[in-house]
């Protein structure tokens, strides 16, 4: 990607600490409700349960509330919030990202809990809370469990979902402490850079070796350690953090060569890897969380030499989408952490694809081809819309991420242009494509610990990035630090 004229590196990145609620639906309670007599974790437990949190989701909700506000319904924070804004109440709902949540609601314990329930999609998606993204809630999990014990409710409920990260020639994911890490594959191997603080500045690039010209994928282990996979036509290798947010192993052999790969986490934390080649799609999975691996197994077909992307259903089942020049197919788990369906037709062929989820959990799939970008979305847990045109760059590389308020945003790049499109509201249709930069070779988006989207674009000149500074405002394109990083042709 050509560097934007005048692009500059900001020494201290814009920090939006505790953008505590970034995606609630309309229709919150209009009037305040009496605050229960309980205080602290017991208050979060009572109002959280009444809001609908159950099981693991209730425990996590209490822990996040403790990390955000010490479960004080009158808590507020204005420090380090850019744009200037106020985090309010038990779950610190931010008035900039959620003006539809009134102060009267935000400082009312039950109304705040109801908002948190909607924002987190029933306790399955805690990405909007920076304390969760940085692991700050973990120290409070014991107290949260004690509060649930005192409440006396141990009803079954969902655990938080871990959504698959986009795969490609450049990938990014957050370490357990909330810092983004990025890997980029050049002709001579793979380079790595990382944020020095959560949502903050970046390190210099370091060279790691590994397969040249590789396709990459990244996922967290159940204990929070990231694991990276690199595939080219002859080699598949992986490396992994030795401890959460810590140093890395050396490259280790993981299989033979192939065309593309994608990685996701089962609901029980086991990583599952999918790779395409000339005879279809194969997979390999951890036998236990953080544990050893199965042998490679056929998935029963799939498009040859296909581009692969993964999504996750609201109940935690993984779904695989595979596209080549003539065929688009998908398979899905028939049960949580379980086996797989047969491959089914999902559309015609194309260039690239990306998968994301609406605020209500429904999957959304975008695919590019010679006349632009099309999308298809779930209308129910088992039903899909028809393909709909969106416009956009022809034969582009695609990525997507959810904006801080929960809307899906899609980025597309080809040799001459970069563009983006976003939902006009939660679970809503999309607006028009807008220019996002000049052309390049690859694009990937990831969410900072504070919820803001960060986009990485590549070209023969190196790797650049661009990040959100508000609802619809962005930084210029810039290097991560002092150098452009590897050329990605």
TrEMBL record:
<feature type="signal peptide">
    <location>
        <begin position="1"/>
        <end position="37"/>
    </location>
</feature>
<protein>
    <submittedName>
        <fullName>Uncharacterized protein</fullName>
    </submittedName>
</protein>
<dbReference type="InterPro" id="IPR058502">
    <property type="entry name" value="PLL-like_beta-prop"/>
</dbReference>
<feature type="domain" description="Transglycosylase SLT">
    <location>
        <begin position="46"/>
        <end position="131"/>
    </location>
</feature>
<feature type="domain" description="PLL-like beta propeller">
    <location>
        <begin position="165"/>
        <end position="482"/>
    </location>
</feature>
<dbReference type="InterPro" id="IPR043992">
    <property type="entry name" value="SLT_3"/>
</dbReference>
<dbReference type="InterPro" id="IPR023346">
    <property type="entry name" value="Lysozyme-like_dom_sf"/>
</dbReference>
<dbReference type="Pfam" id="PF18896">
    <property type="entry name" value="SLT_3"/>
</dbReference>
<keyword id="KW-0732">Signal</keyword>
<dbReference type="Pfam" id="PF26607">
    <property type="entry name" value="DUF8189"/>
</dbReference>
């Amino acid at each position: 990607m050509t560097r934007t004229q005048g692009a500059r590196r900001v020494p201290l990145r814009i920090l939006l600490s505790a953008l505590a609620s970034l995606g609630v639906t309309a229709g919150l309670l209009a009037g305040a409700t009496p605050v229960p007599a309980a205080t602290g974790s017991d208050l979060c437990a009572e109002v959280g349960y009444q809001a609908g949190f159950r099981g693991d989701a209730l425990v996590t909700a209490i822990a996040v509330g403790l990390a955000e506000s010490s479960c004080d319904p009158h808590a507020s924070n204005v420090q380090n919030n850019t744009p200037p804004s106020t985090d309010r109440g038990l779950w610190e709902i931010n008035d900039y990202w959620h003006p539809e949540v009134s102060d009267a609601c935000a400082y009312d314990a039950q109304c705040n809990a109801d908002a948190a329930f909607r924002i987190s999609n029933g306790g399955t998606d805690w990405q909007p809370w920076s304390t969760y993204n940085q692991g700050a809630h973990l120290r409070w999990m014991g107290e949260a469990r004690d509060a649930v014990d005192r409440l006396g409710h141990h009803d079954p409920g969902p655990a938080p979902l871990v959504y698959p990260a986009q795969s490609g020639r450049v990938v990014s994911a957050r370490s357990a402490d909330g810092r983004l890490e990025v890997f980029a594959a050049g002709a001579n191997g793979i380079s790595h850079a990382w944020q020095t603080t959560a949502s903050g500045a970046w390190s210099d690039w370091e060279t790691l070796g590994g397969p040249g010209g590789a396709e990459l994928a990244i996922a967290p282990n159940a204990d929070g350690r990231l694991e990276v996979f690199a595939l080219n036509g002859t080699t598949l290798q992986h490396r992994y953090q030795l401890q959460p947010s810590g140093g890395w192993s050396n490259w280790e052999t993981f299989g033979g060569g192939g065309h593309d790969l994608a990685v996701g986490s089962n609901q029980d934390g086991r990583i599952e890897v999918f790779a395409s080649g000339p005879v279809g799609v194969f997979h390999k999975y951890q036998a236990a969380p953080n544990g050893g691996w199965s042998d490679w197994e056929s998935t029963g077909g799939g498009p040859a030499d296909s581009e692969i992307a993964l999504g996750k259903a609201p109940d935690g089942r993984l779904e695989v989408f595979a596209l080549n020049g003539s065929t688009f197919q998908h398979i899905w788990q028939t049960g949580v952490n379980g086996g797989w369906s047969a491959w089914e037709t999902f559309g015609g062929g194309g260039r690239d694809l990306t998968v994301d989820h609406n605020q209500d959990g429904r999957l959304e799939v975008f695919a590019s081809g010679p006349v632009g970008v099309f999308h298809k979305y779930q209308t129910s847990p088992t039903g899909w819309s028809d393909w709909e045109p969106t416009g956009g760059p022809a034969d582009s590389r695609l990525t997507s991420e959810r904006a801080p308020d929960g809307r899906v945003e899609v980025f597309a790049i080809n040799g001459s242009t970069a563009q983006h499109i976003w939902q006009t509201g939660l679970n809503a249709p999309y607006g028009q494509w807008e220019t996002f930069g000049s052309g390049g070779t690859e694009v990937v988006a990831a969410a900072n610990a504070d919820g803001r989207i960060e986009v990485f674009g590549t070209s023969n000149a190196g790797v650049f990035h661009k990040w959100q500074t508000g609802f619809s405002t962005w930084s210029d394109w810039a290097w991560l630090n002092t150098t452009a990083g590897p050329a990605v042709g």
